[in-house]
Amino acid sequence: MQLTSLLLALLPLTAAAARTGHTIATSSDSLRSTPGGGRYGFKRCVDRGIRPEKISCLNFDSLETSSKTALGPAPKSPLQFSPQFSVFNLTRGAELNILPGSNKHSYASSPNSLILSRFTPETRGEVKPTRGRRVKVDKSAGYPTISRPDGGEFDLFGFYMQPMEIPEGVKGVDVWITASKTASTPTSSTKEPDFDWMITFLPSINEMWYFDAHQVTGEQWDGLKEVKIWAQLAGVDDADWELFVDDVWVRWGEDKHHDSVELK
């Protein structure tokens, strides 16, 4: 298991993995153009091009959302996203004035992203999204989790992400990404994950950033049963924070190849 802290800041944008000595340096212009997908140099779902067989990019632009809240349920197939995820229409969210200015384009492709927190729609209440309110983690809700509905394995290449706008006076937002090759059960919930990374977004970040699992960690995130992602204010215990996620690159077995992915 590795635990790595990446510090991300714009102008200049740098990311340093403190415990491994790995350093990433890039510019603000490269945030959207930096190749994703690690081993195969992918970019965004719209930049499909030629790629190895059985690899798919999931975006969420075809999913329906409410005109009142700009939210919709997260898909359950071909990947299953737990109830802590919702689909969010950022175009509609901007019209409803429920987004900070820096989050009006928190997508890799318009108009939808996923939004996640450690609150389910039932426990978060009617204010959606929370617009970054400092709220205590609802520990009973568990962690936002990605898995296959049939319990099978998948490989993770990467995804775009951006926290809800970080308020003044806060050091940043810590984003945790863990992955396991065995599914969680009540008796195995304390088992350490096979991959365990923490990324700290500094307040100056105001664009989507691509988490390239292979390039960032130096490891291949293959044979996974589940991936968990959550965010909280840096240096503030249990202060939940919302995170946008888009364009998820994955691969599965021969029986699960999807060239044109239909999310359900």
Automatic annotation (TrEMBL):
Keywords: Signal. It comes from the Eukaryota. Residues 123-142 are annotated as: Disordered. Residues 123-139 have a biased composition (Basic and acidic residues). Residues 1-17 form the signal peptide. This is Uncharacterized protein.
